[in-house]
Amino acid sequence: MTFANKRFAIVGAGLMGRLLSLSLAKRGAKVELFDKGDARGNESAARVAAAMLAPLAESAITEDSVVRMGVYSLPRWKALIEELSSPVFFQQDGTLILWHRQDAAEAERFTSHLDKNSLHNSQLSPPRRLNAQELLDFEPSVAERFTQGLYLPNEGQLDNRQLLDALLSELDTLGVSCHWNTELDPEALRNDSGYHCILDCRGNGAKDAWSSHTNNIRSLRGVRGEVIRLYAPEVKLRRPTRLIHPRYPIYIAPKENDVYVVGATEIESEDLSPMSVRSAMELLSAVYTVHSGFAESRILEMATQCRPTLKNNLPEVLIKKEKGLTDLILINGLYRHGFMISPAVLDATIELLESGQSNTALELGLSVTNLIHEAGVCA
Ligand SMILES: Cc1cc2nc3c(=O)[nH]c(=O)nc-3n(C[C@H](O)[C@H](O)[C@H](O)COP(=O)(O)OP(=O)(O)OC[C@H]3O[C@@H](n4cnc5c(N)ncnc54)[C@H](O)[C@@H]3O)c2cc1C
């Protein structure tokens, strides 16, 4: 199918909504993008995220399909970012894993898990153990406090806020009409026969839709996460660093200009209220044990958002076709891996729109459900 001059409505201008809008607009489609928040993405999980792209590290806690989507997405991110007119900080220099001596057993368990996963998946580079000298070469700023570490090659990160802004300016250039502060139910747009297809990218805003379309089988929930942004010119960490800890494992993602994103709590709650004192104390005391320079850092922001999460913690694309109504595609469940896997989900969705099927989804194990079986989606 050719997209030229076909009209699409995309509801939700967080991570997936912006990526899909850009991809469709570049193919000549006429896209309208709606969001209940503002142009900065103030209501999205995408704005708060650390945006680490860490398939091997995440393989310790997620399914193989998500890991494969993460591996697929790393080079895709590089290409997507290169095509943008505004610069977006992107780094693919690996992840460093650290632990204090008393947590060596936990670190050993984690390491053998990753060893096993990298054996199982040949696309994952195996983790590499670092001794004191190697750690000094890799990340001199932490070598005073730690005498060993683990290096996960190829993993990356990007600057989520620069990305959201850069995508938006690209959308402006391509003439996508963006409607901010506009809360919509995508279902209500389906009577407008002018649209070729409607994409629901509302993240947590799509809770009711997922429950009603799937009879609660795939209900969507928010998983609360809190992060702290620090300005720490005394700390010179080069790459994302994770601290293994039995009670509060943390990551530190160094962005440009001495800014560090430290996170994240993971709490089974949809509470969006400000960060708790307990979470702040845990994150800050843990980060200080990695580098004493964090003591003099300045707290730029403490932020809370919920990760949009389906029952099985996996992403899914749901296709709803009904006679007389515009087709609706729901993309959701990106959970804590939205940045890590979104290029894979993007490519799969575009293929579904083009031909009604997606080899990318099949190969990577992305679940695609047709609520009403018909040949071709939006064809
Ligand atoms: C603390 C935290 C840390 C994270 N760290 C990472 C990480 O390091 N790596 C990683 O890969 N992922 C990370 N994530 C996950 C990632 O941010 C999400 O998976 C991703 O943002 C989900 O994308 P989305 O487009 O589905 O939803 P969102 O980005 O949340 O966007 C949804 C948009 O829909 C809009 N919306 C909702 N309802 C309506 C409505 N009715 N009408 C109009 N608009 C509506 C919202 O305003 C929002 O802009 C993190 C998330 C959190 C919260």
The total tally of domains equals: 2
Biggest sheet: strands side by side, in what order?
6-7-5-12-13-14-11-15
Bound molecules: flavin-adenine dinucleotide
What is the name of the CATH architecture of the largest domain?
3-Layer(bba) Sandwich
CATH superfamily of the largest domain: FAD/NAD(P)-binding domain
Q: How many DSSP E strands?
A: 18
Runs with pLDDT <50, length 5+? none
Order of helices and strands: EHEHEHHEEHEHEEHEEHEEEEHEEEHHE
Could you walk me through the main structural features you see in this protein, from its secondary elements to its overall organization?
The termini are close together. It is globular, with a radius of gyration of 21 Å. The longest helix is centred in the N-terminal third of the chain and has 19 residues, at 64-82. Helix content is 32%, strand content 24%. It folds into two domains: 7-48 and 160-220 and 312-370, FAD/NAD(P)-binding domain (3-Layer(bba) Sandwich), CATH 3.50.50.60; 90-156 and 222-307, D-Amino Acid Oxidase, Chain A, domain 2. The chain has 379 residues and is α/β, with parallel strands linked by helices. It has eleven helices and 18 strands. Strand 16 and strand 17 form a beta hairpin. The protein binds flavin-adenine dinucleotide (FAD). The site of flavin-adenine dinucleotide has 42 residues, from helix 1, helix 2, strand 11, strand 15 and helix 10.
